[in-house]
Write a structure and sequence with these properties.
alpha/beta; inorganic pyrophosphatase (n-terminal core); CBS-domain; Udp-n-acetylmuramoylalanyl-d-glutamate--2,6- Diaminopimelate Ligase, Chain: A, domain 1; 4 domains; six-stranded parallel β-sheet; six-stranded mixed β-sheet; 23 strands; elongated
């Protein structure tokens, strides 16, 4: 089913989570179906506090949106059980216009594949194996079912056997001379209304006598067959057709390709495409985690467009987007950050405004188009604005933020000033998370002048908590930078009360020395009056990077 995910950046902050929920609701209320709010990172105590306050569940967690096998596979699996005759299986393949047929057991596990190529090799053996064209690998009952024959006398009809076909199109003397050359218990004699040959075969105790043309058998021969334990059946077809169909009574389990290629439904298409392209098969069983077949993937399915689409909120750089975003169609971008390297195959709605919060843009959509705004969604939008603008004290704040915030106060019944105090007192990231998670709770990666770097931000009530944990935080930042092979990793710690920040930098000596702010201790800089990562810190860091060789 087609779905549209409204999703923020990795390591989402309150603005990303709240704008995703609110914009998904906006799209649904304006007529777009199957819109789902999503997130590609964990929430934190502050986000959880906001969601609890307004009684809204967290968005669906989606770590990777890369196209998967399940996105393009055919869920309607055409298959047969192992005891199906080849003639029945081939008829199914012909009716459904397929070249590969999976054979499944009672628990829907794949035993192998039946291919037209494998079946043709059975029916048309190589010249040095011409005798194989007379073998019937089947049970007597399956033979009768394949022929549409009437069994008038049968003995052990369900036993699998390796039989030999003889078409008795000859004189009785010739038949009598040939009969001793074969083991009678393995012989299937196909004969018309030649009672003399019928008698010779029955007296010779062959395994099966098939009388063709729908002709009746005299009572005398019927009783003789019962005494000699010879299976007797009447085929409605002529002798040539009967002989041809007899070999097709073989069960498909005898002709399986057991060295087939199979895939899991959760595998990424990009990971398996080359393997599938190199395979001689045109289709592949798809299994779930319990190895039950849930679909079929054909080579042509790799060309299908994936039904899942994306709307990005609070970011527009693919380095910050959910994994696999570059492989899906992006329908819209709603953001308030700088423009990153981004291109699409066709025009999209791209709304990027220099305001303090993405939630401001989303709320403006409700207001502009007269869309009914529930109090809970209004509360989320308010929370996104006050956390991203520090309740309009950040230099990123604009007059439009203030106007929208006042409107949201009316719609939600919540006072922004009171809520701001509550939300920033709801939990310290540095206290609630270990250092390695604290430094990535709101971390974004960027590329500038060929250099990759990251900037994380933590908002605290004072710096006391940071100084108590500074050594562990510094070590975690060093590890993060090394593991991601970045020019530098920065942690921006903002005191929302005093409106000032500390900048912790792990990077090359050349870059660290380029930071012109006062260095409190090695690698930690005092940034008086700097509180905005987007409008103040990021422009400064990128200007320093431009002075470095690529």
């Amino acid at each position: 089913m087609s779905e549209i995910l409204v999703i923020g950046h990795r390591n989402p902050d309150t603005d990303a989570i709240c704008s995703a929920i609110a914009y998904a609701e906006f799209k649904r209320r304006t007529g777009t179906k199957n819109v789902i709010a999503a997130r590609c990172g964990e929430t934190n105590e502050r986000i959880d506090f906001v969601l609890r306050t307004f009684g809204v569940p967290a968005p669906q967690f989606v770590a990777d949106v890369s196209p998967r096998v399940r996105d393009v596979m055919q869920s309607n699996v055409i298959s047969v059980p192992p005891r199906t005759s080849v003639v029945e299986a081939l008829a199914t393949m012909d009716q459904r216009n397929i070249r590969v047929l999976p054979v499944l057991d009672s628990e829907r596990r794949c035993l192998g594949l039946l291919s037209v190529f494998k079946a043709s090799k059975f029916f048309f053996p190589a010249p040095n194996r011409i005798f194989d064209s007379r073998r019937i690998l089947s049970s007597v009952r399956a033979l009768a079912r394949t022929l549409g024959a009437k069994m008038i006398c049968a003995f052990e009809p369900d036993r699998d056997e390796d039989l030999v076909l003889m078409v008795a199109a000859m004189k009785a003397a010739s038949f009598a001379a040939r009969l001793p050359n074969y083991a009678p218990e393995k012989l299937v004699v196909v004969v018309g209304d030649r009672e003399d040959i019928q008698r010779l075969a029955i007296e010779g105790r062959v395994r099966v006598v098939v009388v063709t043309g729908g002709l009746e058998v005299p009572d005398e021969l019927y009783h003789l067959a019962r005494r000699n334990e010879v299976t007797l059946m009447i085929s409605p077809h002529d002798s040539a057709t009967t002989a041809m169909l007899s070999r097709a009574s073989i069960p498909v389990e005898r002709l399986l390709r057991e060295d087939f290629l199979r895939f899991r439904d959760e595998e990424r298409l990009a990971d398996i495409q080359q393997m599938a392209a190199a395979s001689q098969f045109q289709a592949f069983p798809v299994e779930d985690e319990d190895r039950r077949v849930v679909g079929i993937l054909s080579k042509s399915d790799f060309l299908k467009p994936v039904a899942r689409k994306l709307i990005l909120v609070d970011h527009n750089e693919l380095t910050q987007a959910v994994q696999g975003a570059d492989q899906l169609e992006i329908l819209e971008v709603i953001d308030h950050h700088r423009l990153g390297a981004f291109s699409t195959a066709q025009p999209i709605l791209f709304r990027n405004e220099p305001v303090g919060s993405t939630c401001t843009i989303v709320a403006d959509g409700y207001l502009r188009y007269g869309v009914d705004l529930p109090a809970s969604i209004a509360g989320l939008l308010l929370a996104g604005i006050v956390t991203d603008t520090l309740n309009l004290t950040s230099p990123t704040s604009t007059q439009r933020d203030a106007e929208i915030l006042a409107w949201l106060e009316q719609k939600s019944g919540v006072k922004a000033a009171e809520f701001t105090e509550r939300v920033f007192s709801s939990g310290s990231v540095l206290v609630s998370l270990p250092p390695e998670k604290a430094i990535t709770a709101d971390c974004k990666e960027y590329v500038e002048n060929g250099h990759r770097f990251s900037v994380a931000q933590i908002e605290e009530l004072g710096f006391t908590t940071f100084w108590k944990r500074a050594d562990g935080v510094r070590a975690a930042l060093d590890r993060y930078r090394e593991e991601h092979e970045l020019v530098f990793s920065a942690l921006f710690i903002t005191d929302v009360v005093q409106q000032t920040s500390l900048l912790l930098v792990s990077g090359t000596p050349q870059f660290v020395k380029s930071i012109a702010y006062p260095e409190v201790v090695p690698g930690v800089f005092q940034m008086e009056g700097v509180v905005s990562r987007k409008k103040q810190l990021l422009p400064y860091l990128t200007s320093q990077l431009r002075q470095m060789p690529p």
